[in-house]
């Protein structure tokens, strides 16, 4: 039996977190939730999920700061990040991708596109982990 891919949701909007949790659990994911950037950053280091779904617009620590810090820390730098944001400006998209996000999706999101982005990112994460553990680097 395969284990469920683990997704960490980082957003400051509890309703969005609730809706995403329901949808992603129904799609076969294990879910952890962090309400805000600082909490999300700490959770990522502890949990080490297969993929992180990250909002950009959050108080105190925004998604750009979270993404930057994730990439600086050894425990989290290889975790794929999918950004899901209402900030649709090209500048925001480019900055998120330059900071290391795998994908940038807009709110409101298309559920099929979101699931596919998470699946691709978590598959890539699993392959990288397996290659690292067996000593293979592709």
How are the SSEs placed, and which strands pair?
Layout: E1 6-11, H1 14-26, E2 30-35, H2 37-47, E3 51-54, H3 63-72, E4 81-85, H4 90-98, E5 103-106, H5 111-134
Parallel strand pairs: 1-2, 1-3, 3-4, 4-5
Q: Which class do the helix and strand fractions yield?
A: alpha/beta
Element pattern in H and E? EHEHEHEHEH
- CATH topology description: Rossmann fold
Write down the Rg.
14 Å
N- to C-terminal separation? 26 Å
Put simply, the count of helices is 5
What is the makeup of the main sheet?
Answer: 5 strands, parallel
Q: How many strand elements? A: 5
Q: Would you tell me the overall average pLDDT?
A: 90
User: Helix coverage percent of residues?
Assistant: 40-55%
| Uncertain runs | 129-138
Oligomer: single chain
């Amino acid at each position: 039996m395969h284990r469920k891919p683990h997704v960490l949701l980082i957003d400051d909007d509890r309703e969005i977190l609730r809706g995403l949790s329901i949808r992603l659990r129904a799609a076969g994911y294990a879910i952890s939730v962090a309400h805000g950037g600082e909490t999300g950053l700490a959770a990522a280091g502890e949990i080490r999920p297969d993929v992180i779904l990250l909002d950009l617009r959050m108080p105190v620590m925004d998604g750009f700061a979270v993404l930057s810090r994730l990439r600086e820390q050894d425990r989290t730098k290889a975790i794929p990040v999918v950004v899901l944001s209402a900030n649709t400006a090209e500048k925001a998209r480019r900055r998120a991708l330059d900071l290391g996000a795998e994908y940038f999706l807009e709110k409101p999101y298309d559920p099929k596109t979101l699931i596919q982005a998470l699946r691709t990112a978590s598959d890539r994460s699993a392959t990288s982990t397996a290659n690292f553990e067996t000593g293979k680097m592709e």
